[in-house]
User: Fold these one by one.
Assistant:
Number 1:
Amino acid sequence: MTETNLPGGSAPDTSSLPNEHDALAGEPSEVRRAHAGSAHEDGHGHDHTRSDRADACAPAASARTVAEQLAVILADLKPLVPVRVSLDAARGLVLAEDVLSATDTPPFDNSAMDGYAVIRADLLGASAQNPISLPVVADLAAGTAENPHLMPGQVARIMTGAPIPDGADAVVPIEDTDQGTDRVTIVRAPTAAAHVRRAGEDAHAGDRVLGAGSVLWPTRVAAAASAGTSSVLVHPAPRVAVISTGSELVTPGSPTRRGQIPDSNSFLLAAAVTEAGGVAIRVGAVPDDDDTLRALLTDLAGTVDVIVLSGGVSVGAYDVVKAVLQPLGTVHFGPVKMQPGKPQGFGRWPATENVPGPLIFALPGNPVSAYVSFEVFVRPALRRLLGHPELHRRTITATVADGWNSPPGRAQYMPVIVTHRTDSGTETGTDTDTDGTRDRTHIEVRPASRGGSGSHLVAGLAQATGLAIVSEDTTHVRGGDLITVMLSS
């Protein structure tokens, strides 16, 4: 599997990075020591004022770049152990072995059209001016095992997919006949082997129909079925528990009192897990209580492959996620040079009886921070577990319509609206052709929220169709600039 660099980040120099086990182990590593004293981290769940203030702070000298953080996450991360599933359950999964054709496909010569199976020599010279009439001696439907032998001067009515009878060497489409049932009049001579699909035309027995690493979209599921297989060996979808933390969170639709807000992050992240190909287990919100969270994580550890938490990763008095996970010595917390999403936690739950615990991602609690962190770090990891050949979203280059500012020393991920605009100013999704002249289309982007780049601006995020990626050394994005955009779909 080829590795691609994360859009907006240069290839990381991993020679000085610890491997995943060293970075997450209990012993001090250079990275752990470098991060031990980091003070400002984008905060606990939904304390927007405190968190935005932290997210706006300049990065610590020890902070990792986005590329470095992703390199640590993906280090030694392999696809899940393959399992065999029925074709009904295979859609969207990734093959762990080649699919070989069990038989020739198609397994017999068959008709590509509704019409009449004929002996071509009987119809030489047939035309509208010189029609030829022949007796119909058989009626062959798709699925029939009947195999009449045509003698010269005989035809058989035949449906699409039905086996070509012995003696026949072409098919005349029904449109070139009078559609007779006892006798048929044919007004056009067929070409050699016209409308005959030969046995093995698609694949021969033993041919590779699909390769390991292929994503099983509907057409590929059909190809596997056509090859004669009823089950395939695939990497299973990772089971991902999603947890929001914060005593202020309540179930959406429930009555709220002063200080309470609806839990949106667990719904956001669970939907993102599903869209990435995982199986989301939305636990919902848990209060800021160490014992409650610790017990929940202990129960989940043996049942899931990944745990994604949001909130509680900063240095506040109620940042429960960090308080519970950091003492384990297997989860690393530290700043990343990005906005939003500066504070990050990643590691594993401790192993049990030599069985590795689930991956743990501890994301900031502000919704935009959580979303950006998921797209940049969690989604590629889930795709790796799936064995997917494409870890990252597709990127495009677009022109900035309305500029904005970006913090120094940090890669910025700005939610933007992507617009296709023609030379004449019309918004469109494709090129247009007006009065015979093609109107060229330009791709433009503008921030999705008028409120700036705050990590709590959920309404703007809902309108975004991509994330514009601003490099660490850029502080002003101006109208007319070209910029890389990670598309949302």
Number 2:
Amino acid sequence: MHPDRQSFRVGMTLVELLVVVAILGLLSVVVLPNLAGKEGTRALRLAAGNVSAQFAKSQSLAISRRSIYGIWLQPLPTNSAACIDLYFSDVPDPYRGDTFDAKFTVAPAASGSNATLTGSSSSGSTVCVASLSGTAFANFTNPGNLVQFNDCGPFYDFLLSGTWTARLRTTTSQTPTNTLWPAPPPAAHRFAIYRLPTRPGQPLTLPAGTAIDMVWSGIGTQRFGTRPTPGGSADLLGDGSSTPQTTDDWRSDPEYLQASVPETLGSAAKPGAVVPLFDASGALAEMCYIATAPASTARFPVQGPLYLLIGRVDRCGLPYNPAPTDSNPGANWQYSDSFWIAIDPKTGVIKTAEVVPNSATARDSQRFIRAGLATGNL
């Protein structure tokens, strides 16, 4: 180096170093909480994508196999308001008897609402000897199983009440005046028994901390779960009713889709499952509620879009809170990081959308998702 040139080493003074430390501290205070919040949002977005993909795959299986296929939504045993496990669900092949020529004779009651069935075959043996006798095969006669005669005409409820019985389906508005029975004895008829869905295989488990809120999810304007709060703006329809819901029967209540207590989703010991089913065209065909007590099991057609609320598991089932806080949170649909998934019953189209923030009712929070459905006004 030239002797006339002097080299100065550049460094930081103590004041400059303290300024840098202060800036880093300020950034950590401001940025890190936001990063943590975005992580939760990403988990909810991933959960919504997983649920949507699972339903889409089930729908594809129903179309490709030309059969009924669906998703089994199993609430948590310790928190029946939350569902984190989704199983594929299929329906066993129809049972047509033990012999090729197995038939039922159908003897309608005087009221016309039910009929007694008697098995017969040309070989002289009774139909279903091996498969429908004894308690070992009681699943054939659980509520929710259906029977059809001669591979055409209406479906009837099939159950065992002392004798094998076919009953008109009130869930599809069947009455003696609008539904005919097959020809009475001695005429005999071929039959097919359609059983309830099963859940083979392992479930899809949603990301940690996320779940389907089973209390606020439902069909159309009806919910799966019981009211978390009596009336007010927390109810799904937004009608401001101040009367608490005391009877929770989702098969008969005109406003809320619920199952009988204690076999509702609120049965903490072993909550009942909800099973939406697609038909071979890809449309939502029917809904099954698989109760822990067979007598409470129900099966009925879908009469509106299926809505699933994706939110945090610790907020599942909570009622509306006009001023939610970290220590006193509100319903999942009050938070902008939650998602609605909807399935159009006619087309089977699956949509996903964020909730409408700052909504006063659950229906208001569905405005984005309803706008994308052909039947969004339901």
Number 3:
Amino acid sequence: MTSLVLPAPNLFSIVTTSGPGTRAPAWKALLNWPRFGDTHVDYAADTPSQRNLWAARLDEAVRRADKPVLLIASGESCSAAAWWARLSPADYVSKVAGALLFAPRGPDGDQFASPRTPLPFPSAVVERNTTRRALALAESWGSGMLEDGWNAEGDSAWQQAQAAVMRLTARVVEREMRVARAFDVIVP
């Protein structure tokens, strides 16, 4: 089985989040990626105080990153990441260059509501078998959607994932260029 290697890994700090009881996060099961990134934040939110503690830990992981952050979430933590992105301080969220949201759970699976507004950074929803719910979440978050389903065997999954990461990376570069132009850092 071929594993996916992120292009130019030195460009991003990888921050992952998934449930602490998850034996294999969706990105591991679908693509045979490593279980954790540069930093991992376990997601558990049975109460508002636990949710807020998780958000503070994610704030800290993003704040401590020495490069732009690629946020990778799985399951219930996808909606939590969307909640975090809309409600955390802009200086933390602005460090996130993009997100890959694997197998997000819909409203029935979430303990806490997630805003249904576009995320402030480029993102893609990755789902083994695309559902209406996943498409609706991707649309509400302004995320790209991988609609072809995933097959973790052979080169097909690797090629699909590599193409998705390359598209996300291109959107990250476009976003960074817009920000740089807005601050007159570069000439258009």
